[in-house]
Design a protein that fits this description.
Elements (H helix, E strand, L loop, with lengths): L2 H12 L4 E6 L6 E7 L8 H16 L5 E7 L1 H8 L1
Parallel strand pairs: 2-3
Antiparallel strand pairs: 1-2
Helix pairs in contact: 1-2
């Protein structure tokens, strides 16, 4: 399993309704751009949403992944962006 799959699986395990897109920003699989849509973010400020994800990724960030760029949103907003 590569780092992109590892990160996506970690998030989906904790946020079961999440839509997760992970891309490699540098070609080395250690600087990742992650988009996460979940209803778990409803009513939470952006900082709270990002803290939720960082808490999930703490272990991965101690090893193979060095940096992440996060974009979080509710499922409604994600669906609207996809239309």
């Amino acid at each position: 399993m590569n780092n992109l799959e590892l990160v996506a699986n970690l998030i989906k395990t904790q946020l079961t309704d999440a839509k997760v897109e992970v891309s490699d920003m540098t070609g080395t699989e250690d600087h990742l751009e992650i988009t996460i849509a979940s209803d778990a973010f409803k009513g939470k400020m952006l900082l709270q949403q990002h803290r939720m994800i960082m808490d999930i990724l703490t272990e991965a960030l101690a090893g193979p992944v060095h940096a992440v760029k996060l974009k979080t949103m509710t499922l409604d907003k994600y669906t609207g962006e996809q239309a």
